[in-house]
Amino acid sequence: MRALVPAALCAAVLINPASGDQTMAEANHPYVGMWVTKDGHVRHELLPDNRYDEARGSRQSAYQGRYEVTGNHIEYWDDTGFTADGDFVDVDTLHHGGMILYRQPQR
């Protein structure tokens, strides 16, 4: 028996020829959008071009770089060389760098 997956959770899969890793294609994974800590201090936007822009407090674009999603895991490479990672525990909750971020509904 095949399991049915809601269309909103479907993503194209790419295979990185260098590593053989499968990663979700640009703009097609379900995690694109704004992620915010409960207090609103950290605002982490995952852009559809596999870039991110993170604000901290009143500091806009405090961190920027690229990201890659594999399954429910995300890897970040900041433009300055800093790296980080995180895990989506469900479609609305991201654990990243000791923080819990929640999907912000689109306006």
Primary descriptors:
disordered N terminus; mainly beta; eight-stranded antiparallel β-barrel; 107 residues; single chain
Description:
With 107 residues, the protein is an all-beta fold. The protein is built from no helices and ten strands. The strands form two sheets. It has an eight-stranded antiparallel barrel. A two-stranded antiparallel sheet has the order 1-2. The chain is globular.
Describe the secondary-structure layout.
Elements: E1 13-15, E2 22-24, E3 33-37, E4 42-46, E5 51-56, E6 59-70, E7 73-78, E8 83-90, E9 93-96, E10 99-103
Antiparallel strand pairs: 1-2, 3-4, 3-10, 4-5, 5-6, 6-7, 7-8, 8-9, 9-10
Largest beta-sheet details: 8 strands, antiparallel, barrel
The total beta strand count reads 10
Radius of gyration (CA) equals 14 Å
**Pattern of helices and strands:** EEEEEEEEEE
Question: What is the tally of helical segments?
Answer: 0
Strand order of the largest sheet: 3-4-5-6-7-8-9-10
**What percent of residues are in strands?**
over 45%
Q: Low-confidence parts, pLDDT < 50 over ≥5 residues?
A: 1-26
Q: Level of helix content? A: under 10%
Query: Which descriptor suits the 3D outline?
Result: globular
Structural class estimated from helices and strands: mainly beta
Mean pLDDT: 81
* Gap from first CA to last CA: 38 Å
